[in-house]
Amino acid sequence: MSRKWLLGLLVISTLYLIIGLIYYTSETTVLDGFPVFAAIYLALITIHGVVYGLGLVISWLGLCFHKSGAITLGSILKIIAGILFFPSLLVIIPLVILILIFNKKDIKREA
């Protein structure tokens, strides 16, 4: 049962990455009059997307190969990505907490 929850949470995380990056990169048009702020914003969102994407790939691999350490590492990378782009923490923290909870339940079930 917890594998299904992990799968669902990783699908939601993947949707966040896809939809969030589309939204955040389209927001640079609002900052057209402020090129310095637009450049900083775009740099932060790019770094956020790369680190979050890396954490997501590691989490997916951990789910596929039943490696709880990889899921935990992916969650840590997603938290770091959230710190890099602060507004995203509102979405990332609940997802990561749920992923870690269901990951621990899955570890106990396998033992």
Describe this structure in words.
The protein is mainly alpha-helical. The chain has one domain. The protein is built from four helices and no strands. The mean pLDDT is 85.
Please describe the structure with a list of short key phrases separated by commas or semicolons:
111 residues; 4 helices; elongated
Helices and strands in order:
Elements: H1 2-26, H2 35-64, H3 68-84, H4 89-110
Largest sheet report = none
Whole-number tally of structural domains: 1
The tally of beta strands, per DSSP, is: 0
CA-atom Rg in angstroms: 15 Å
Taking the alpha carbons of the first and last residues, their distance comes to 15 Å
> How do the helices and strands follow one another from N- to C-terminus?
HHHH
Give unreliable regions as ranges.
none
In helices, the fraction of residues equals over 70%
Sheet/helix structural class: mainly alpha
Proportion of residues in β-strands: under 5%
Count of individual helical segments: 4
- Indicate the overall shape: elongated
Q: Give the overall pLDDT as a whole number.
A: 85
